[in-house]
Specification:
CATH superfamily: Ribonuclease H-like superfamily/Ribonuclease H
Number of helices: 5
Helix content: 40-55%
Radius of gyration: 19 Å
Shape: globular
Structural class: alpha/beta
CATH class: Alpha Beta
Oligomer: single chain
Strand order of the largest sheet: 5-4-3-6-7
CATH architecture: 2-Layer Sandwich
Order of helices and strands: EEEEEHEHEHHH
CATH topology: Nucleotidyltransferase, domain 5
Length: 188
């Protein structure tokens, strides 16, 4: 966003160009049953964030895996087309003992990565430990602590529900912070 101001001082015109870059960040917490998403606005120079939207993409467990992934891909595509984010933050997989969960989450994560790549949007990936460490200052923080910080950051009356949406907002905040750092280092 660029604002141009024209001033007339003693018959001379001075043009002042003021650039306020507003970024849109999409955070994604992938899952086959529910994928959380959160869209935030962030300014380039300050760490100010505003909530744009959040929610979940849900799929029916009675559907075949391929059908569920197709729904996820189509819904993510529509969200990206609607908001046109500048960067996407996606949660990385973490180790778990439940092999079935790992497989379904990795499939949903693959769909999210592919959809973002098809739109040529920069992708930042974070483990749950990294997100919790950034949001709460402690990598092993509980979900309720993350939800509380997200609630306070966006001045919400209650924590975002369901949990997947709150997690996606936390991922978006983490992506905004890291992208702003990259932005400043490269003087974009």
């Amino acid at each position: 966003m660029v604002f141009i101001f024209i001033f007339n001082f003693t018959s001379s015109f001075y043009i002042l160009i003021f650039s306020l870059y507003l970024m849109l960040i999409l955070g994604i917490d992938p899952g086959t049953a529910t994928t959380g998403y959160g869209i935030i606005e962030s300014t380039k120079n300050k760490s100010e964030h505003r909530l744009a939207d959040f929610g979940v993409i849900s799929t029916d467990k009675k559907l075949k895996d391929a059908e569920r992934l197709e729904i996820l891909a189509n819904d993510l595509d529509q969200i990206i087309k609607k908001y046109r984010p500048d960067v996407i933050g996606i949660e990385k997989l973490f180790l778990t003992t439940n092999q079935k969960t790992v497989m379904t989450v990795s499939q949903a994560r693959g769909v999210a990565l592919l959809t973002a790549q098809q739109h040529k949007i920069p992708i930042l990936e974070f483990t749950p430990l990294q997100v919790k460490n950034f949001i709460c200052g402690y990598g092993k923080a509980e979900k309720k602590q993350v939800q509380y910080i997200v609630q306070k950051t966006f001045k919400l009356k209650t924590a975002p529900k369901p949990d997947d949406a709150a997690d996606a907002l936390a991922i978006a905040l983490c992506a905004a912070h890291h992208f702003n750092r990259i932005f400043k280092q490269n003087k974009i």
